[in-house]
Amino acid sequence: MHQTKANRKSPNLKIGAILFVLSTIIPGCATKNSTIDDSLDKQPPEWDVMLAKGSQILMSRSAKDAIQRYFDKVISGCEKLYGNSPKHVYATRDATEVIYHNLKAKVDNQAFITVSQTCADALYLRGYASLDLGQIDIAEEYVKRALEMSPVNSRYLSELGHIYHAKHNWEIALTTFERAEENATAFSPRDSMKQELARAKRGVGYSLIELGRLAEAERNCASVLKLTLAIKTL
Question: What is the pTM assigned to this prediction?
Fold first, then answer.
């Protein structure tokens, strides 16, 4: 599951630029370096069932059980499926993320394949569960691996921001939650966008409070409250 060129630093793709080119690259978004892989079908459907069961156990505060019975088993299967891939493996939730991956691949001159979100979710949930067990560094490792597969996933970024809160790295946490906020607006699926945006905004607010930037935190709090009320009326 360790992806090729995982540590390579690439220029940040600005959201405005991405939105500008969406209409121009859709007809030819598949290039010689980018393919939509039919390996989607190779991910057994029972993996999603296992992650759902693990999540239920996790919510009942049985993190260790969730890891051993479900998350690690799915991750092991994913590593067997994609671990030796010569191309970077991206996980995607919708077409907008596929387009982003095409753009990023062009910037990085990187070959890649696109698969469903299951394997990235397994890494994210493994990190979430590890944090519940107080294993902060392990949690960070797994969430970062999830982000290697799904770099604009707002939910994963917010979890990474939460890990930085646990480490009292307030500045890095703020930057991470701000990225999560931006990506929620630009990339999150419509049915989860408001929830992911609200979580990112709460993280931004908490970070600002810890940094002593109280006026900004107050404005953020008002924004979060407005968004929360909008979610409750859905």
Answer: 0.83
